[in-house]
């Protein structure tokens, strides 16, 4: 029997509906500030989606944009101003940044209390200690997608094909917090299929089209595809969808799977930041 499709759009709508219900009761609406650098078309699209989601649930959005030649110092000044602006509850720096800018330095400049992407050392450190305050939106969304299938992650073997701070590292901590047994793979991993074949859940965000094929998946596994690549003017993922869907029990589509959940979890984190700040 073909795998059941995990509808990320529908699950994201459920998250947004809950946020909207809470926001409607607030006297002061939360505000999300997005720092956008350069004219990357994909980044501009992602920012528009985040702004649309904010509007949908009653959250204010503020766009701080700069040209691609902006200096690192100027970006740090922008972030400092947003940190000090009591009207701003959440700050997000849209990645990637230009080569002249130190990504880690910029992300670390964000106040941990406003770090709705969960990328500062403080928030990543809390996550490693089991404190889930501000967690990577993609990682958090992936866990929600897995749990939407009714799966209890405790004791499950999970293979994560990514080790970035955006997906893999925070996701591993979330999975460990739920007592899963986790294997972490990446571009240097030898014999990838040896890890994926033994996994009850496979999550991939490698950005390599058709990396994971049906013969690499355990019968009945849950497969989450967070790899998004533009191929021949269409979006595809890491999963060879047609072969994997015949083996897996549940699978996410690309697009329409992890992407909407990332946005929804960002909006959820912005509301959380506003509540923790007493707004």
TrEMBL record:
A single GO CC term for this protein reads: cytosol
Q: Start and end of every Tetrahydrofolate dehydrogenase/cyclohydrolase NAD(P)-binding domain? A: 136-276
Catalyzed chemical reaction(s): (6R)-5,10-methylene-5,6,7,8-tetrahydrofolate + NADP(+) = (6R)-5,10-methenyltetrahydrofolate + NADPH; (6R)-5,10-methenyltetrahydrofolate + H2O = (6R)-10-formyltetrahydrofolate + H(+)
Q: Which GO terms describe its molecular function?
A: methenyltetrahydrofolate cyclohydrolase activity; methylenetetrahydrofolate dehydrogenase (NADP+) activity
Gene Ontology biological-process entries = L-histidine biosynthetic process; methionine biosynthetic process; purine nucleotide biosynthetic process; tetrahydrofolate interconversion
Q: Under which pathway is this protein filed? A: One-carbon metabolism; tetrahydrofolate interconversion
This protein's UniProt keywords: Amino-acid biosynthesis, Histidine biosynthesis, Hydrolase, Methionine biosynthesis, Multifunctional enzyme, NADP, One-carbon metabolism, Oxidoreductase, Purine biosynthesis
Q: What HAMAP family does the database record attribute to this sequence?
A: THF_DHG_CYH (MF_01576)
* The family this protein is said to belong to: Belongs to the tetrahydrofolate dehydrogenase/cyclohydrolase family.
Q: How does the annotation summarize its subunit structure? A: Homodimer.
Query: What this chain does, per the record?
Result: Catalyzes the oxidation of 5,10-methylenetetrahydrofolate to 5,10-methenyltetrahydrofolate and then the hydrolysis of 5,10-methenyltetrahydrofolate to 10-formyltetrahydrofolate.
Q: What is this protein called?
A: Bifunctional protein FolD
Q: Which organism is it from?
A: Candidatus Iainarchaeum sp
